[in-house]
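Suppose a colleague, Dr. K., hands you the sequence of a protein chain of 518 amino acids and asks what its three-dimensional shape might be. Before reaching for any lab equipment, you can write down a predicted structure in token form. Begin with the sequence itself:
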Amino acid sequence: MLLNVENLSLTYDKKVIFNKASFRVLNGEKIGVVGSNGVGKTTLINILCGKVIPDSGQITFDKQIRVGYLDQYLNIDSSLSIIDYLKQAFLSLYNKEKEMNQLLIDVKNLKDQNEINKKLNRANLIREELEFNDFYALDSNIARFTSGLGINNYGITTPICKLSGGQKVKVILAKLLLERPDLLILDEPTNFLDTIHVDWLVKYLKEYKGNFLIVSHNQEFLNNVVNCIIELEFGKTTKYKGNYDEYLRKKEAYNEFYEKQYKAQQREIKTLETYIAKNKVRASTAKSAKSREKVLEKMEILNKPHSDDIHLNLYFNYAPIASHKLLVVDNLEIGYDKSLLPAISFEISSGTHLALTGFNGIGKTTLIKTLIKELPPISGSFKFTDNVIISYYEQEHNFEDWNITPLEEIQRIYPKMTNGEIRSVLARCGLRDSLALQPIKTLSGGEQSKLKLCKVMMKKSNVLILDEPTNHMDVTAQRDLLNSLKKYQGTIIFVSHDRNFIDELATKVFSFEDLLLS
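The predicted structure, expressed as tokens, is then:
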């Protein structure tokens, strides 16, 4: 047994996250952790990694194993280049090499044959250890990971301080995978990966000889790599053998069984209560009624079946626009200090759903920031038709004040709205009840995404520009978002790595990779 979690309990801001939850991770298990936004998936990872202390419960790792987890907020030396940071995964081997080289230097200055033999023997042992650990193939091994995860695109000598948040996470993930821990703990590892790099990670994890525990909303990814699912629901954990599709089948069967059990129990309760009410006052049947009362008191009452899924009821506020030719891009070069790409030219008509595709770092977000005039063009031009109103969903979670609540955030933008009106809109975006009154910093990543989505939805617009809108969102929220966007009458320009989302929503695709090849 690699990990044992017993009776884990945690209440945060009056919300019960875990209530005596228990599970084990056994050798050979490759586990996906699933559940709706806000049920505690990331909190569970943070507890396992020691970043959050539970109210009670016991967490025990096998002392003989190495555990590695993906920390997106890891404090690392940003002055290091990508390659120097990745080499830290093999620091002990590089130190061994230094020791061996020093021993060989020392030998040249010795005359005592015994001392010479001792140092040569020690150097030989180190050499064998280095060869056993494929030390002399490290450069090619590192290159395999930087290529597989698309890190080569940034330049491996680039200082980490020059990387975006998503690019930095990919580098941290690469180092973690290079270290090959016995138990990998990953939280949404595909969020910042392009389709081709997700495919590479899938292949890697299929061949991985260790074990892993992965939080993900990516069903296709989980189907390909896991052999167990741990579901978080109502403060408890339930473990299912098999991949995500098998979990869904078993979950559906269990729900049907539970509902039958619940209905049968309700019928039994009603029968007992009716009998007791009719017979407890009659002397001849009082004893029998009392006996049934005891049966009822001892009965473990089943909770009413209900879904933990929170559906979104989105309606994007459309401002009509008459123009047919909505956007013309003419020889546009984008970037910060220099152009990232060859000149871009295209045009789209009103009502187009344009998907921007390509590997991370190629310039998709840079184009978006240029179109919303957050970045100036290097050269060339673009022009939206008159009367365009853009509503923008940015990839990163950026809020002016993380300490205020969602209700206060919307109130800040729309001061004339009443509390009731704001709470009604927030509820449509999945932020119901206490979620509307919690500080933004206490919300899960998916709940913060829903708040951002709420702001986009409320703004009257005829163009939606969305940068990775499905990141952090649970499967139900993704489906509801897709259905609502299909109904939007305006133009949508969006970035996504979700193949299904692109296939379902896009009426036109602009591939940055094709631009490089042309």
